[in-house]
Amino acid sequence: MKVIKFGGSSLADAVQIRKVCDIIISDPERRVVVVSAPGKGVNDPVKVTDMLISAANAALENGSEAGLQAMETVIERYAHIAHDLGVSEVMEDIAPDFRARMALDRSNPVKFTDAVKAAGEDNSARLTAAYLRKLGCSARYVNPGDAGMYLSDDFGNAQILPQSYTLLSESLSAMDGIIVFPGFFGITESGETVTFPRGGSDITGAILAAALNADVYENFTDVDYVYSANPHHIKNPKPIPLVTYREMRELSYAGFNVYQEEALLPVYRAGIPVNIRNANNPSCPGTLIVSERGAANQDVRVAGVACDKGFTGIYVNKYLMNREIGFGRKLLQIFEDEGISYEHTPTGIDDLTIIARSEFFENGTLSRIVARISDELGTDDIQIHEGLSLIVVVGEGMKHAVGIAAKATKALSDAGVSISMISQGSSEVSMIFAVDTDDAIRGVTALYDALLA
Questions:
Q1: Whole-angstrom distance, CA of residue 446 vs CA of residue 38
Q2: What CA–CA distance (Å, rounded) separates 85 from 118?
Q3: Which pLDDT value is given to residue 257?
Q4: Residue in 250, 185, 172 with CA at minimum distance from that of residue 211
Q5: Count H helices, E strands: the chain?
Q6: Among 44, 52, 133, 190, which residue's beta carbon has the most beta carbons within 10 A?
């Protein structure tokens, strides 16, 4: 049995939904289908989720009537798709659902917005199931709450609750035919609608694959493969036919947007392969994400090079720091107090640098942290390095090869890229270089040419 997920670009209009349904019915093992809200289409430049957020904001700022007016545009888009598919009757369920959400309590704006956002996936599932039935399939829409998809009450950033796996397995295994399941949301234990982060339909699909112990989780998007570098940075980069969970996690972290990085956790723990495929080219085998490369693929040293921008480094120096017990804990406590997660902490004998995303340091937070470090830790020097990018070289095979780091640093040197930080964990799955953002693309190009071309 396969769990299969389709992204928003695959469901943007009636033409795309026909392709999706052809893919579903071409393989009888594709029994559980997870759908996103319609994305950008040929004649629709805005994603439905963004339209719903605008409708929610309109209601919050100007009342339910303003929200309803904005929501009518969403309803019109679904009605147009339903008409083109020949299933206009499904709008008898879809239109009232959209309108009813505008009447929900708005006293908690985040909770209200989650309920509105979730309508995109929810009604996309109703629409897809209706068209599958029109094609003669036994297909049903399944509401996540009814099936046991219980999440934490962190609105907009929910996490799966452990009991959900058993509940989902029991409820979905008892159903026959094709199950069409909306991605992106579930319910809290008190019955409130709550969403995962953006891209959360990937997470839904992974959870269902793990709960049902699927043979494979097929994730259909709009590219043939995961590529060894961003095509916007490198012309015609090499495709990656096979990649491990750990490699994919590193690449996703560093800006590869093909697969939502949190979505790897359920299938990683369950050992279920993930197949990234293209809904517009379903004959292409795509990229397979697996636990281990196996003997046949051990010669692959570097899988890819990725880059992400928007980081700040805080350099802290104190003489005899290494002799001061608890210094690192006290420093990191300041960041924890401010609600900041850090990315890397390269160290020396008397110095330590905290690298974190720059978005955490807005509205005076950076000045406050610097003052606390100086006052509470008695440091000798603090320096701020803004405008950093992180370039990540990823490949489990690097631990079996000698000289990869030498090649990488030489390539950056030859390209005139100054390195602010180098980090490589003991697993040797990745090497990370912090560089000035102005040098980042040049650095990616140099590393790709040296290690992958």
A1: 38
A2: 23
A3: 65
A4: 172
A5: 15, 18
A6: 52
State yes or no: pLDDT of 295 exceeds 60: no
Q: How far apart are CA 125 and CA 84, in angstroms?
A: 16
> What are the backbone angles phi and psi of residue 197, rounded to the nearest 5°?
-65, 170
Q: What is the pLDDT of residues 420-450, one digit of tens each?
A: 888 887 677 889 999 999 999 999 999 999 9
Residue 361 and residue 38: Cα distance in Å, rounded?
34
Rg, the chain, Cα only? 24
Under a CB-based contact definition with an 8 Å cutoff, are residues 326 and 424 in contact?
no
Q: How far apart, in whole angstroms, are the C-alpha atoms of residue 266 and residue 262?
A: 9
Q: What is the pTM of this model?
A: 0.86
* Lowest mean per-residue pLDDT among 10-19, 257-266, 275-284: 257-266
- Going along 215-303, which residue ranges are E strands? 216-221, 226-227, 239-240, 242-244, 274-278, 287-290
238-274 CB burial, b ≥16 within 10 A, e <16: eebebbbbbbbbbbbbbbbebbbbbbbbbbbebebbb
